[in-house]
UniProtKB/TrEMBL annotation:
Residues 253-266 have a biased composition (Low complexity). One of its GO terms (biological process) is phosphorelay signal transduction system. The lineage of its organism: Bacteria, Bacillati, Actinomycetota, Actinomycetes, Micromonosporales. One of its GO terms (molecular function) is DNA binding. The keyword tRNA-binding does not apply. Residues 17-88 form the OmpR/PhoB-type domain. Keywords: DNA-binding, Transcription, Transcription regulation. It comes from Phytohabitans flavus. This is OmpR/PhoB-type domain-containing protein. Gene3D superfamilies: Tetratricopeptide repeat domain (1.25.40.10), Winged helix-like DNA-binding domain superfamily/Winged helix DNA-binding domain (1.10.10.10). The keyword Acyltransferase does not apply. It comes from the Bacteria. Residues 240-274 are annotated as: Disordered.
Length: 307
């Protein structure tokens, strides 16, 4: 069983999506599924589901919605009453938020850029629409949707990092151009675009991206680019070797007939905003500059915080 929140709210049983009818029922399920296995009090459920206009018999109405949701879950590990409220017992099931969180965490721990790319692609693909799209207009859920939007943005940045570390150059440029169109103030995406352009032999275009960002930030917000991205521009101007793409994986073969096994393959050196620290000898200053463009390093979905 999987409860899906990264788009419309539904339940998938044996690979078949089951719709959940009704705004308030979806809200009850989402409130529990955002903290699976944790008790959510009855008062808190009523507060986030009905906000300032609960029905006269709110507790009874809530119980009716919970009974309906148990039928949707069709006898699978379900909604359990536990004082002072209820919890969603997934026992062997999951939510798409949990799956995305775990994939992103695994990618961050991986030292293999190719493996990280696969994990992050799968994580990003779990977003089918805006998170909790059925509950737009309910304040608490709008806040959760914004949080999950940021998780997706950080995952997309991490995916670009992994692709750059895997040696991609021109291939990532269209995705980065899409990111900067969506948010002209997104400094990490601009930094990644500058690096991808530079590695593709387009130094002047990389510098033009910086100038465009500088102008937009000045005109819209009255601020200058942050120190890390200014340092990146200077590094590009100097054409420093630290910005070169990582070397391909190689293996040193032993002379024929010696009976000596080939030397193990040399791992590529992650060179830009790595998902896990490893092997940056001689590039500490430059990579610290690039890494600091990402605001925060917790790329997981996490939990919605205290009730």
């Amino acid at each position: 069983m999987r409860v899906r929140l990264l788009g419309s709210i539904d339940v998938v049983l044996d690979g078949v999506p089951r719709p959940v009818s009704g705004l308030r029922r979806k809200a009850v399920l989402a409130a529990l599924a955002l903290q699976p296995g944790e008790i959510v009090s009855t008062d808190r459920l009523i507060d986030v589901v009905w906000e300032d206009a609960p029905p006269r018999a709110a507790a009874v109405t809530l119980q009716s919605h919970l009974s309906h949701l148990r039928r949707v879950l069709a006898g699978s590990p379900s909604i359990v009453a536990r004082a002072p409220g209820y919890l969603l017992d997934l026992d062997g099931g999951d939510t798409d938020v949990q799956v995305a969180d775990e994939m992103i965490a695994q990618a961050r721990r991986s030292t293999d850029p190719g493996h990280a790319v696969s994990l992050l692609r799968a994580a990003v693909a779990l977003w089918r629409d805006r998170p909790l799209v059925d509950l737009t207009g309910l304040a608490w859920f709008d806040g959760q949707a914004e949080r999950l939007d940021q998780v997706l943005l950080r995952a997309r940045h991490a995916l670009i990092d992994a692709r750059l570390a895997a040696g991609e150059r021109a291939e990532v440029i269209p995705d980065l151009e899409d990111l900067v169109r969506q948010d002209p103030h997104d400094e990490p995406a601009h930094g990644q675009l500058m690096l991808a352009l530079y590695r593709s032999g387009r130094q002047s275009d990389a510098l033009a991206v910086y100038q465009r960002l500088r102008r937009v930030l000045d005109e819209d917000l009255g601020i200058a680019p942050s120190r890390p991205i200014r340092d990146l521009e200077a590094t590009i101007l100097r054409q420093e070797p630290a910005l070169d793409p990582p070397p391909p994986e190689t293996s040193r073969a032993a002379p024929a007939g010696t009976g000596v096994a080939p030397a193990p393959a040399t791992k590529p050196i992650p060179a830009q905003l790595p998902l896990a620290p490893a092997g940056f000898t001689g590039r500490i200053r430059e990579l610290s500059t690039l890494d600091s463009l990402i605001p925060g390093r917790d790329d997981g979905c996490g939990t919605p915080g205290p009730w």
